[in-house]
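so my prof wants the structure for this chain in the tokens format not the other one, which i didnt know existed until like an hour ago. anyway here's the sequence
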Amino acid sequence: MAVEQRGPGSGTDVLIRKVDSRVVALRAGLHGPDLELAERLASCLRELVAVTAQASAADRAQVRVAVHYFVLRRESRGQLLSVRSLAATQRLVNKAARRIGRPDLMVEVRPGRDPLPPAPRPSHR
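here's what i got, hopefully its the right format
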């Protein structure tokens, strides 16, 4: 049985296309700071995909998880991300950037935009 050798660009291209498709969908419903955050997340994800194309499988997996979270995350009432979902995506993307040793690619909160608090933790009673 022949084994197909995949080039480094095949998975990279697929992930970038997924990010690009999601941004196109978000542009239809988001505006202002929310759209800006989505665009910055997409830009960061594209860069993370590119810089990990030749990295270890663990690093590529970190980035792949972040891409899939950005692409597949949906609210129950529709297909657009809520602000809280964008903040959760931002935390996950930043975590991936830190883990692969690229904190320079983290997406920071812009001045004039209040950072959202972390998701509430369940109380232990």
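also thought this was worth mentioning. The helical segments are 8-27, 32-51, 57-72, 83-99.
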